[in-house]
Sequence to fold (279 residues):
Amino acid sequence: ATGGREGIGRLLICEPAQYGKTEQASRLFPSWLLGDLPDTRIILTSYGADLATENSRICRNYVGSDEYGNIFGQRSAVDEPVELSSESRSVVSWNLKGHRGSVFAAGVGGGITGRPANLVVIDDPFKSREDAESETYRRKVMSWYRSVVYPRVANTPGAAIIIMHTRWDQEDLAGQLLTQMVSDPEADQFEVVFLPALALDTDKYPRTMEEYRENLLRGIYIPMGGDALGRTPGTALWPERSDEKQLKITHANMMDYDFEAIFQQMPRKSSWAFVIFSF
Fold:
């Protein structure tokens, strides 16, 4: 109802891999937003055009479904039904009928110049640890964010950015934006959803603002006050998917370096790591 004038304008989601971030933020949320605010222009991005296009396709299918029509479409009680335009329904770029709402999909480095956006979703800008630990690729992603993505929302009142990706490196996109939050008072202040697979030990949470800021300067977000869900240390985030026992098994069969990044969203400094197995 407020047309985006209220709410969260900058959101960073730090959750484990395969815990539903993409489904929630790149597919379901854009679909709902178009139904609630059908003039919303959305850009979905990822490390490659294929993943961004897949998210766009699924979002489009939701909007075109009978269930969606019952809530927002011709079979609903809304004054102006929301439905797909028959003239523009490709998976890369599609529009709504009778509204300005649209969705466009692009990969990192892809052209979105000239496309204003009310919402940009950046879903996994790094395909792998190799990309995230490459200074050259990190510069590419940050340059793309600053010079291509950000201008799309900078002059659009109420526009929002959602970023989510595995925290492979302290200087990845999320890490650099977290550092800017504390080092530059004019930098965007992101709302951060930090949900590690296993709740951290009590001593991991910052006790003072100074400790909190020191973590941000290292590109790591850990909230003050303890676990966001009030979990006790070691409690699994989604027991029905992976309980504490399964996560401990997973941890034991991975390098600690990787588990901390992928499941706990607490990356360490880039380094070469070697494992020697003895039989």
Remarks:
- The two ends are 65 Å apart (CA to CA).
